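Attaching the record inline, Q. Sequence:
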Amino acid sequence: MKEVPTSALILGLAGLIPFLWGAGTVVFPGLSEFGAANLGPRFIGIYVLNFYGTIILAFMSGVLWGFATKAEGARAGIGYALSVIPALWAFFMVGGGAESSVIALIAGYAGLLLLDAFYWQVNLAPRWWMRLRIPLTAVVVACLAVSLP
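Structure, as predicted:
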């Protein structure tokens, strides 16, 4: 992780907080009760995981779009086309029920990691990108998975 810029690392780790919170409220009933009483039911368990997971998956489309701006010609077209896949996946696949949505998000984040690797492989993402994305994705997928029966 030494090569990852400090600001990117800190912001990436901070972005895990809602995922960790959601997973924590699934695992620890007392935390869930505290969260429900103080934040409301939308901000605990599978609900916050679905809500925040969808937002971040769509956000990552924008990150990939930014990478595509570094390309030219047909390569740029491919980069732009691939960059919208995570947002479209979230739009079409999330929302059919809490558990099926979590499964769709897990698949979406796995697919996103493949797209991350592609942009990294074709030198559109920074060289440190996968050093950041692999552990972040592992934590996200683990947090989402905790909410499944």
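The two ends are 33 Å apart (CA to CA). Residues 6-146 form one domain.

More tomorrow.
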